[in-house]
Every structure is written in structure tokens, then in C-alpha cells.
Amino acid sequence: MQSRTSRILLTIFFLGLLATPWIIRRLSADKELASTASNSSSALAQYGFSFHEAGKASGIDFTHSAPTLDPKLAHIMPQIASMGAAVSIVDFNRDGLQDIYLTNSGEGSRNALYRNRGGGRFEDVALALGIGELNSRASGVSMGAVWGDYDNDGYEDLFLYRWGRPELFHNEAGNGFTSVSDKSGLPRWINANSAIWFDYDRDGKLDLFVGGYFDEKLDLWNLEGTKIMPESFEYAQNGGRKYLFHNLGDGKFEEVAEKLGIRSRRWALAAVAGDLRGTGYPDLFIANDYGVSELFFNSGGKEFREVGARTGIGFAPKSGMNASVGDVLNRGNFAVYVSNISEERVLIQGNNLWVPRDGTSGEELKFDNMAGILGVEIGGWSWGAQFGDLNNDGFQDIYLVNGYISADRNRSYWYDYSKVTGGNTTIISDAKNWPPMDGRSLSGYQQKKVWINDGAGRFIEVAQFTGVTDVYDGRSVALADFSNSGKLDVVVANQKGPALLYVNSVKPDNKWIGFDLEGTQSNRSAIGAQVRIFWNGQQQAQEVSGGSGFSAQNQRRIHFGLGQATGVDRVEIRWPSGKTQTVREPETNKIHKVKED
Amino acid sequence: MPASLTPDAVSPPKPKPASPVSRFFSSENRYLPPMLITAILLVGQVSSGLLESFSRTALAIVVAILFELVLGRLSYGRFPNLASAYITGISVGILIRSPAFWPYALCSAISIVSKYVIRWKGRHLWNPSNFGIAVLLLLAPEAVSTLSIQWGNDMLPLLVVWTLGAVITWRVKRFHITATYVASFLAFAALRGLITGHGFLAEASPITGPMYQLFIFFMITDPRTTVSSKWAQCLVAFLIAATEMVLRLNENIHAPYYALTIVGPAAMAIQLWWTAKGSQKAIV
Fold it and tell me: Sign of torsion, CA A471 A473 A475 A478?
């Protein structure tokens, strides 16, 4: 039996174990304090950048509204009608200035196309150009939009996805938009929350991926029953189907998803394409709600193979709401960032940062989740996120928005939510079993996250110190250089809230360089072109994207921060056609226009 | 979790030699509970990818076993049977949810050490893993949650686990505890459904999840931390369900863990006090 001394020692040890969480918390708090408190009044000096919100002052006066769906869902309407605030960036009139398209979702509400007039001013021209009034009970309501020049005429066209009819608008040389949906071959109805443009077969014509969320057979305004919910909180496969529209080149698209191997019926919330293996063909990553993420390797544009489990990303099911790619370690390859749910005391899923494992490549590529190690794991009920070098120090940072339902601050729906989501299929899948929300919040009023990459394997959260103080229910975020001055500004679309424009001020001694690419043999938007920059003995890769994040699209322009570099050694561009082009010692602090040779 | 449905439950007389199958499914087989919980883990993992990760679960098991070996040796001068520690580790590995590794190790450590530190009249009062999980939920809410999801999309894995669990708890003479708790939970769910207006299914929903399979087959039946008599065991199971109902009406998400943490040791303490009082009387 224990002696008195050993009992005392064991008790002390036990108390030490009980104190461990407090010690860990204290240590990490001290660490954060050390990195932030010394000069919080001068974010510009300490972090190299700061934001100020200038939406309304710039002419962006836009507030998102949610739809009112079938009355059978009235008791949980806030959580059903909880998406649709989306933002995408485009230079629709080729005037060299990045414009903003915002979607709305209330029946009768208007989408907005904010033309960048220069000088920090924007004006809404959506109505005048025919892409404003697009939300109705008959057509469905907007969930997001992506831009791509599907007919290679030099002007970016608009694909609008809805809980309803998907619609393609042809850009008439920047003077208006014409719906070409009828002849394009798009289906009558998709309940979609994600879409991206990419040229999966590298034939020079942009193709389109659309991810269904709710089953496409559901008309959410006119339900026959209430069995519309996921059959499981983490293993659901009763969501909407996926679509891959192959661009035939005559304004028509052929749907080939199933033929090419994309048969998932998971609840897709985000998708991103990127050449993760260096094959030249874009692979497809899908972040799914209520389940695991999926990664489809692209086999020469002829087949997609789902390799999520094999590569490590498709193992632990979570609530994927974002998919964006970035070269976070300046190694010339891409990590994928997936946002999930973290709510203290209830559910700690943690976000995923899938980083390619050293020593793996090609078919054997494996990913490790390094979100915890790098410090970008806990982001609340996270939604959209984007990579971008916010302070031009040469490393990719992350801007994340979050917050699900901000209603009554003092009453939470979490208990009732967790009660039902833990139940069997027959219970969770039927909306009538879900307790009414009654004006309660669910992970509302959350502080956004701005993580700056210190270049040494750690991200530091600086939102509060850099001017990002809003607590709206953020959904979609996009980055763009609106003033062509070499800094990334941020546009945030908030659910049932105002659109925000965070204008960036960056320390001037950090250099930068930008590339506006135009394909000739490749698709003219150059979506999928990979730009690799070499400077100061390091490299960074980026790809022109046809949509990333959550219901979002950044500017197509590639922007690199260079830190205090005196120059750039070279830039290698690999076009979607397979051609490569090298630009030697390009001038810094300049936007370069590069046309495919 | 627990010290399991280990053999010190009851040792019935054997009028004739039992068949190998009977011996296997008997309370004499101290490896039966570990096998059951391993089966639950495998069914859950194969059908639904239940675990956060194999490595985290393995960490929880290894830490539990290491602490049991060291503390058993230091305290009693011999290496203890590891069935109980294995169940504790595996329960922690399944029930704790955290993206970090340290909570798995810490929870297992707290669970095992608590058995050796918090003792009264030579007995530990708390079910180890229940104690460890409840403590961690209280002390590290920012880093830890518990398994709150369901099995996959069909009833088959659930039925397999229920059937296996029922057969085994029956054989080791603990099924009445499970049955009493389940019946009480369902009755209270109906009552809560009336009080909240959310209906029976919403209130009964949690018990269909895998967390409850571990709770009803392992935690509340743990022989070392349950009272002796059959009727007292049923009463305690009922009181756990009743306490859980009160906690649930107050929207406590981790109600079952806290209910067992409160009621289990209280019942044990009362029994130990009562027994000691009886012994004193006999001596007098």
C-alpha cells in the first residue's frame, strides 16, 4: 500500500495534472501577448499594415438580406437561410481597375456590381447592366457568382449560382450582360453554394464546376415534407449532386461530372482547383459540410479520381466551409485551407491547413494538417478565408471571416443544436425534429481572424490590432488591389449585414510585384496559370484562380509581396496550355501585363 | 472509463463445468469488456470513421496503461491487470474530441491517477474516465469537447453494438443497470419533450449516438464504482438519469458526464458509510 510520503507526492502530482490546462492556457496567452502588446497602437509599424473600413465612404452601400423559404422551415429559418452573401472581384470593363460583385438573397433584393471609378470611389451599375434584379421566388435566389471569359472574347462573363436556376451572363464588351443560360445547356435548378471556373482538360476553354448543397430536387419555397436535412452531422451523403460543365466552345456546355468520376452527393460548400501535383492539370478540392473533404486528382483531363482518404485529407469528418490554396511555407507548392466549427465547451473541430508532406509527390502525395502547429486552427464558426500577402513581407497571410447566427446575445441555440445533431438519421434528417430557434444566437458576434505569416512557421493573429473589429456574420471574403498601388484590400460579404471594404495601408519599404496575365492558346482569363517567383534565394508559387474561399473569387491578378528585396531574379509562368514563359529580373513595385507567347 | 465490467462483479457458483462459450461470455472473463469496447471502436471506425485519429486514441491508451503500470507497482508492489486501464484509455480516445494531442494524454493521466489519489475507505469513488472527461471539460473548455456525433447513416452499427452490449452486460450481470438507465432516460425524454415543447424524438435523440453506447455499457456499469445491491444499482441508474434531466433542462451539453460525476460517488460514499456503520454496530 501507499506510504504517507508517496501519497503526498502523488497528490501533488495529481494537482499538477489538474493545473496543466491552466498552465497551457497561460503560456499561450503570454506568447500572444508578447507578440502583440508591445505596440498595438501602431499596427503599421509593428505588423507592416493596417486596415480601415471604408465601405460606405467609398460608395458601397449594400446590405444582404436572407430569403424566406417554405413556412414548414419557419422554426429554424435562420439556420436554413444562412448563406448567400457572396463577393467576387472582376475587372468587367477592362479599364484596369478591379470591380466588386455582391450577391443578395432576399426575394426581390438586388445584387450589386460596384464599378471602380478610381480614387477610392465605387458606383453600383448592376441594374443598368442587367445583373441586378436576379432574386425571386420563381428563379431562386443568389448564393454566389464567379467570373470567367468562357468565350475568350476578352471580357469576363458571369456565372451566377442560386438555390434555384443557375444562370450564365455574357459580358457585352463591358457595356451590359445578356443571359445565355437557355442555350448553354445548364440545368433548370440546382441548390448550389459553390462554383468555380477552371480548364480541367486544358483545351483553352473554361469549364465550370458547380457543387450542390441541398438536393437539386428540392424547391425550398415549396416543400412536400420536412425531410430535407442532412442524414448525419458528419457522414451525410444526401446532399446535392455535383456538376462539371465541359465547355464545348459554341456557347454550349456538356455536363460530364459522373462520366469523369465525380459522383459525390455530399453537402458541398466550397471548391477550389489547383495543380497540387505539378502535372499541369488542375486537381479539384471540395470542402463538404457534414462530412469529410474530397480531393479529386485530375488524370490528364480525362478522369477525376477521389483520393481524399489516401492523401490524408478525407479522414476526419468535419463541417468544411472554405477551400483556398496558398504556398504558405514558400516551398513552391500549395497547401489547402479548410474552415470548420470551433465553439468553446461544445465542439472543437478546428480548421485544417493541409500542407503537402515532405518527400511525397505525384500519385503518392500526402497532406498533413498543420493548422494547429502553424496557429491557424481555432477560428470560431469559420466561413470564408483567403490567402494573400497583406503586408508585402513575402509570405502568404490568411484573412478569415466567421460567425453563424447573431441574434439574441444572451440566449444560445447551441444546446438544442447539439441535441439533435447527435441523433440518428431518422431524427436529424427531418426538420420538424429540430427545436425552434426562437431568436437565439448560434456562434454569433464573433471576432474575425487576420493571421500574419511570420515566415518562420507560425501565424500570429492580429485582427484587433490592424483595424478589423467587426463582428458581423461573415461569409465570403475576397482580396484585390483596388488602387493598383501594390496592396491587397479586403471585401467582406456578411450574411444579413453590410458589405465591408477594408482598405489596406502597407509599410512602403516592403516591395511588391503584380502580374496581369492573358492567355492566347490558354483560356484568355489565364485561370490555372501558375506563376513562380524567385527572389532573395526563396520562391513562392501562386495560381490564377477561377474561384476560391467560400462563395468568393479574388482578383485574377497575381500579387506578390517581396519584403525588403532589392530585386527579383526571375518569374516563371506556366500557362494552362503547358507553355512556360520566363520573365527575368522584372521591375518591382509594378504591375506587369504578360500575354502568353 | 472504467474499471470496467471486470470480474470482481459477482462470482456465481458453478454447479457443472461450463462450456467454453459460456466461460467466454461470463463475468469470469475479465477480457470480455475490453473486447466489447474494442468491438465498439472497430464498428464505429469501420462504419463511420468514428475516431478523431488512430494516433490520438493510441496515445490515450498508452498513457493510461503506463500510468496504471507505474502507479500499480508503486502503490501495491505489483503490476496490475491492465484491462481496466485499457478501457479507460480507449474510452478517452473515443470520447474526447480535440485537434490537439495533449488533452488525450492528460485526460488518461488524470483518469488513472484519480483512482489512486481520490480514495475513501480504500475505494475509489469515481469512474476514472468519467472523472477525467468531466474534469477536462471543466478545466479546458477551449481545447476539448466530447464525441457528440452519431454513427453513420444506418441503424446496423447501432444494432450490432446494442446487441453485443446487451448480451455481454447480461452475462456479467449488469444489464439491469443499463436497462434501468435507458428506460429512465426515455421516460425523462418524454417528460422533457412536454416541458420544452420540442417533442420526444428531439429529446431522445442523444441516446442514439455512440457516446451513449459507451456510457450505458461501460461507465455506469463499472463494478468498482457502483454500489453492491441490485436494487440500489437500479436506483442509482435512475438517479443518474434524473440528475441528467435536470442538467439538460438547464441546457447543459455534457449532462450525462456531470450527472454520473455527481451521483456515482455520492452513492458509493453512502454505501461505504452505511457498511462501515453496520460493521461498527456488529462489533459493539
Answer: negative
Number of Cβ pairs closer than 8 Å across A and B? 154
Q: Do B253 and A414 touch (CB under 8 A)?
A: yes
Q: Which three cell numbers stand for residue A387?
A: 490567402
* Per-residue pLDDT reduced to its tens digit, B116-155: 999 888 888 898 999 999 999 999 988 888 865 555 555 6
Q: Cα B187 from chain centroid?
A: 21
Q: What's the mean pLDDT in B247-262? A: 94
Alpha helices (H) along A90-217: 126-129, 181-184
Chain B environment of A1 (Cβ under 8 Å) = 75-76
The residue to which cell 492523401 is assigned: A311
Cell of B246: 435536470
For A61-74, b/e burial (b = at least 16 CB within 10 A) is ebebbbbebbeebe
Whether A16 has its CB under 8 Å from any CB of chain B: the answer is: no
Measured CA to CA, the distance from residue B228 to residue B244 in angstroms comes to 22
Please indicate if any CB of chain B lies within 8 Å of the CB of A226.
no
Q: What average pLDDT does chain B have?
A: 84
d(C-alpha A266, C-alpha A233), whole Å? 11
Angle separating helix axes B175-196 and B230-249, nearest 10 degrees: 30
What cell was used for B72?
A: 500499480
Minimal Cβ distance to B141: which of A10, A345, A433: A345
Helix orientation angle between B255-283 and B230-249, rounded to the nearest 10 degrees = 140
pLDDT of B10 reads 42
How many CA atoms lie less than 13 Å away from A312 in the CB half-sphere? 18
A569 touches chain B (CB under 8 A): no
Model confidence at A159, pLDDT cuts 50, 70, 90, reads very high
| Residue A36 DSSP code | H
Q: Could you tell me what percent of chain A has a pLDDT over 70? A: 98
- Residues in A closer than 8 angstroms to B100, CB to CB, are 372
> Closest approach of chain B CAs to the CA of A237, in angstroms?
8
CA angle A383, A231, A346 (to 5 degrees): 50
Do residues A534 and A561 make contact, with C-beta atoms less than 8 angstroms apart? Answer: no
> What type of residue sits at position A237?
Q
pTM: predicted TM-score of the whole model, two decimal places: 0.91
> Phi and psi dihedrals of A368, rounded to 5?
-115, 140
Kindly report the three-state secondary structure assignment for every residue of A389-452. CCCCCCCCEEEEEECCECCEEEEECHHHHHHHHCCCHHHHCCHHHCCCCCCEEECCCCCCEEEE
Q: Can you give the pLDDT at residue B158?
A: 74
Q: Average pLDDT of B205-231? A: 85
Q: HEC states along chain B?
A: CCCCCCCCCCCCCCCCCCCHHHHHCCCCCCCHHHHHHHHHHHHHHHHHCCCCCHHHHHHHHHHHHHHHHHHHHHHHCCCCCCHHHHHHHHHHHHHEECCCCHHHHHHHHHHHHHHHHCEECCEECCCHHHHHHHHHHHHCCCCCEECCCCCCCCCHHHHHHHHHHHHHHHHCCCHHHHHHHHHHHHHHHHHHHHHHCCCHHHHHHHHHCHHHHHHHHHHCCCHHHCCCCHHHHHHHHHHHHHHHHHHHHCCCCCHHHHHHHHHHHHHHHHHHHHHHHHHHHHHC
- Residue A79 reports pLDDT greater than 60: yes
